[in-house]
Protein 1
Amino acid sequence: MNRDSIMTETRVSRWYFGGIASCAAACCTHPLDLIKVHLQTQQEVKMRMTGMAMQVVRSDGVLALYNGLSASLCRQMTYSMTRFAIYETVRDKISSQNQGPMPFYQKILLAAFGGLTGGFIGTPADMVNVRMQNDVKLPPELRRNYAHALDGLLRVWKEEGIRKLFSGASMAASRGAMVTVGQLSCYDQAKQLVLGTGLMTDNIFTHFVASFIAGGCATVLCQPMDVVKTRLMNSKGEYRGVIHCLSDTGKLGPKAFYKGLVPAGIRLIPHTVLTFIFLEQLRLYFGIRVITST
């Protein structure tokens, strides 16, 4: 080894850090997610975000804003853990072989694959999450009253069959791909560009700026799919499939596909910011040490 070479230490994420960071972020943003689901399942626009939040609190109390939290955490531990594990593991391996960052188009393709896989795996937990969040809106006699995520998964399996657990899987997988492209690849690229200016270092403010940009990209990319996915998962048999749901939603006008865009952004952007801040802190303090010589 050249005696003049300098040893530098970097830290890379462990494969499960994405799932842990996403769970921590979900605990903070769950009420916003619940309100978003309520807005999307309205047949006609009757309430805005604040009005919907007030109605939930008035009718069922403040804790009702955390309905379905167990399902949300279950979803993060399946969907988010899978997509982060695929993306970060492959990205770090390719980057170490290439001695530099991946091109942006490769990041997009890798993020889409990770999101597609994670979206499919997380569909059952996602469906139970949507149902548990929407339960408080239904009359008492129509409520499903799942005790927790596992109870919901078992009851759907027993009462409606295993196929119902994957209802809306194509939309969930497609949305997962779009969100992961918006979040992971855009975050990586934004962080790379910000650091490349030389004006900022790899600190929490850089992570905030890059994740805020990524959250905005993800919200716009996935909102139409998110609306259709929510309607399919919450349906009681009124839709024959994805195409029928798309055409039915389309009859309400183009704006119907962006119903709940503001609350989706208000929920997804903070969720993205918190996820990446938690992830970066986990990486910096508990990540795998990699020693390189330059």
Protein 2
Amino acid sequence: MPNLTLSPYFNLTMFMNIGPYRYLALASCLLLYLFIVCANWAILLTIFREKTLHEPMYIFIACLAFNALCGSTGFFPRFLHDLASNTHLISRAACFTQIYFIYTYGGNEMTTLCVMAYDRFLAVCHPLHYHNRMTVKKALTLVGLAWLFPISVIIIAISRATALPLCGNKIQKVFCTNWNIVKLSCVATDLNNGLSMFVTICIIFLPLVFILYTYTRIMNAAWRGSAKFKGRVFQSCLPHMVSFVIFSIALFCDLALSRYNAEEMNPFVAIILSLEFVIIPPILNPLVYGMKLPDIRRHILKIL
């Protein structure tokens, strides 16, 4: 039987010794974090300041920007510390806090994209009833519910993992994940595995199916419309579709990596795949919405 470990720390084992290139990596990641903070704050402030942007679609975009700030802040400060350090030990409390921020970022991102797909579905397929069905108050309510559910089930999943007796402290990641901690358990984890599957289905696969369904309906409606109508639909929905595709690919890479033995992969490839999830969407979302939506682009340029 494996020996029970009472270590108050976890060891993140995927950090490589890259010698003097460590400082280049540290500077590059710091610049990425600063760009994410500045770009998403620009989106947030623009939508907050301009009353003409106080509409459901822009409220959802502001929620994505705020979620990106929360997720990045939950990941980057600790990651930058580990890049600058020769040891990569993280306390149990800090590890589970990081899990909370990163997992709620992922769950909130998917459910917010789900609500945005519903908003675009109403705007395209039911334009005459859109303003009655999607008010600012209803948009805020939908976002509140879309964020409350992932946060609730993630807290339950994390609390279950904190109670497990562990027979090791090595996490094959550059950041903490719930699944990697559950794998260290000395006892059966059927309940934890079932809970993780429930969380994955509820906050990833069900929203994914709903988003695919709504955009199929949107594309069918656009296909039957005039060329002008197709152009308006394309301009309105393209940023959301790009955000959805980017996040889905990054999330799939992280989920696939979590179920694969990272030690059997090229370390550099494993690190890149695990970082896509927390880096790529927060960088690209403000660029996509800032460049593709003329109202946001115009107001950002005016502020600058």
Protein 3
Amino acid sequence: MDGDKLTSKTDSEELKTTLQSCIDSLTAEANELYLDQTVAVLDSPLTPLQFYRDFISPNKPVVIRDLINHWSALRKWGPSYFRETIGNLQVTATVTPNGYADAIHDGKFVMPEERLMSMSRFLDILDSPGKEVFYIQKQNSNLTDEFTEILKDVDCNLKIGEEAFGKQPDAVNFWMGDGRAVTSMHRDHYENMYCVISGWKKFILIPPTDLPYIPYEDYPTGIFKQEDGIWSVVDDPNTTQVPWIAIDPLHPDTVSYPQYNKATPREVTVRAGETLYLPSLWFHHVQQSHGCIAVNYWYDMEYDIKYNYYKFLEKLTSVIK
């Protein structure tokens, strides 16, 4: 029986080795045959058909300049305009002691504290930042729900997105915050059109075909809370555990997660007036300039054959761990 167990273990290891070789070939061919090594930047908009054919269908990111150059927000939006038009508006800001919201902290997946304040108060904090990091980033279509008074300065929907995706966006979000705010590496089941209005956003992007090299762990959940000037993490009563990416691409721990060495990240900086098409299921990590203002549109992805292949790759990855 011991011999049978040894043979079974050997066969299992050989199978895992074979599967790993197949996965490595998949990711290598994706990088060699269709993925660009840098994110393309287009100096002018393209037609919806070109957009769909060249980027949406192959699931490739692209930066498009001048797509939103008709927006009055590019000329108006800033602290002075916001104080004048929406200074008394009550907005939801997330607050953390370290700039990381929805991220791993001391072995837990920790969500930010949320505070309701006037827009003028939020701008005051950005003008003179303290130890805490404030960020308007509530991803519930807050632009159309909370910021209706300045909605006229942008498009409620991008025409190229409506025609290429064949649908209205599920959410349109407003983003503004401290330069220390960082979005940890994650992926979304949305086609994302990310428009920068002021400042810049720096994205680290990793294609879905690199999924086997992105380490996940299950983490207990918590929420940042401040009381009497002291920050702590309290348990989240609504969720017990969350699977989250275990590596920070700015400081990757490749000793604990050596497979990340095979990942092929791309970096791109999106500046004022530019729009990033961030395809569904691409892993992304985001940094920003202080006071950066952006609007993004989320279109629900199509759960088509690409999604089926992705889920298949996900299951294969779990087998070889």
